[in-house]
Amino acid sequence: MKKLRLVLVAMAAALMLSCAKETKEYEVVIETTMGTIELKLYNETPKHRDNFISLANEAYFDSLLFHRVIPNFMIQGGDPDSKYAEPGERLGEGGPDYLLNAEIRPGLIHKRGALAAAREGDDVNPAKMSSPSQFYIVWGKVYDKGELMMLLNMIEERTGRRLELTPEQATAYTTVGGVPHLDGEYTVFGEVTKGLEVVDKIQNVERDKYDRPLDDVRILKVTIKK
User: Fold this and answer.
1) Which of 54, 75, 189, 214 has a CA positioned 20 to 30 A from the CA of residue 117?
2) In this structure, are residues 78 and 66 in contact, taking their beta carbons and an 8 Å threshold?
3) What pLDDT, in 10s, does the model give residues 154-189?
4) Which residues contact 188 (CB under 8 A, 6 or more apart)?
5) In the chain, what are the domains?
């Protein structure tokens, strides 16, 4: 009987440890030439979370550029071809030789500061599989309620896809801001917790016709907080 109690205690301890690991939120620090951005990764998207952690621990992102920035929309990085890119070179096609299955969750939206995975378009990627390395951080705009409703109706008219926002999600887009039309199309797997002002600075830099910054904005180091 004593041995059975010990086994049960050990099993309970193992279960508690497993649950603790699953509920722990991993934090990321992205040091750039324009400042530091801190984020958290969502446990609801474990494939994207674990892949990002793995690449960061391999120093994969270090020295890469934010190669595509669009004011009032987003900043994008993670293309390994950008590490030694010549000025004016067009970027955005590089990455590891695998894809990630989509982990699109209804409650994870493209609010300002959201971290999401880039991907190829639906014409060649109907399953919406993600690039394993290229990511973007959302900026977007703040909508009033009328604008938000008009946008949702426009999306439905053009695509036949109706976005149903919870009151909390609608509040996010009318107070914090974001890019609602990307919801349901790309995997959101984290969000900025500190350094939104850095994202703001990056999205406003001068850029060329391909939306590449004229002066390189480089990721110096990506660190996963223990």
Assistant:
1) 214
2) no
3) 989 988 888 888 999 999 999 999 999 999 999 999
4) 42, 45, 104, 105, 108, 109, 110, 114, 115, 116
5) 25-138+185-225 (2.40.100.10)
